[in-house]
Predict the structure.
Amino acid sequence: MKKFISVCICLTALLCTAALATDYRKETVGVSDVDIRRRGEAVDVDMTIIYDKLVLRNNEQLTVTPLIVSGADTVALPPVLFRGEVFDIVAQRKAGFYEEFDTYTAPYDKVVFSRAERRDREHALHGKRTPVQTGEDIIRYAGTFMYPVSSGATVILHQEIEGCGDSDLADMRTVGNIAQPVAPRISFLVPVVTETAPRKAMLTAHINFEQDKYVVKPEIADNRTELQKIYDFTSEMMSDEDIEVRRIIVRSYASPEATYEYNARLSQHRAEAVRDNVIDRMDLNGTIFDTQSVPEDWDSLRTWIADSNLPSKEELLRIIDTTSDPDAREAKIKEYDRSTYNILYADVYPNLRRTDIEIEYDLKPVTLERGLLLIETDPSKMRLDNMMEVAEYYGRDSKDYERALHTTLRYYPYEVAPNNNMAALALMDGNTHSARRYLERFEDHPECLNNLGIAAHRDGDTRQAEQYFRRAADMGCEEARYNLEHIAYLGY
């Protein structure tokens, strides 16, 4: 060991002495084609390091380290090492002998100059013609590096030269800047009022009629109670200040006994009879009424049979499904199993004979003051635009805004505006998973596409984010156009 140390010391001293006796020109490295881009908390660095004029002594090392500097924060990227042949040999032997890792075990790149190459470089720099001329020696320095600093930064190329136990700053120059990160522009939606299909409310009543008759007689069976149900239901809907009734449909159903043609006439007459009774009793305008009839309610009958425990259930269902003529269908059921038909006639057919009152209505627009009350007491009476208006009144940074959106989604689960805005809130909280869940059904909507782009970018998928932003921008979304233009500088 002592012998090895003595040799190293003597070799180093000899080289240092020889170096002092030789005076020659020394250059540092240069850079070109610098491209530095930010992606969230990562930085893409791409530049060319040029060392065609670099000359090092055998016992020297030039360490070129790109630094990202932001205020008092500095991030050092992997260095590029340029070494003289002897420096490299001594460094490797020292690391191996002492079982230590070289300080620069994992540089970005390492270039070692031999004695012959150093001599040729010196001659070239002094204008002497030599068999080997220096060419354009370059290193492509490219990679993605984490950079957690949230503000703008400067990229500096720090160059330090070492030799004979000393180190000096050879050069330090600015090669680029990282722009201040910008927050992505999240898209919120305010729904536009459009013409919509009417809402519907329905009541079923069992009005009993005398056989083959269609005169409403309150005194028969429970007719008085059933009629009162119709009056109360209609009155409540007509007097509700938050709705506007479009029309009232009186729909009468008959059971399958007798012919289909006969039942069609009978059910229509009974619907008209109930309509006239309600108009007379409540003094309503008859123009908003409409009558419909279902001569034979086979759908309800089939449902009852399918849910029953009748031994002949499967055959009865087959008859219903395969016999198109209703009169033939009833005859086959009666012929197949008379006892089962009697059960249907006595227990099921009476419930098929009924009257539905269906009221089609629109929700009226409400003032903000009333909307603030209804969203707490009866949100079912609020239109989508009024619910969203209340939410906006609360302010997007408030818990009440989120609570109002949750209420809106209970009544309008398939509307784009509340789903998009819930996704926007999730993005503001950094929850990309929830944001995607709200947006998954709306990839044809520009604002939703923009928000999907933000989710993808935040998750590190810049390529997918760019595709979303581009599609949304092509569809006219200004937030997406901004995000696309600043995609390299988006930060969170």
User: Anything to note?
Assistant: The radius of gyration is 43 Å.
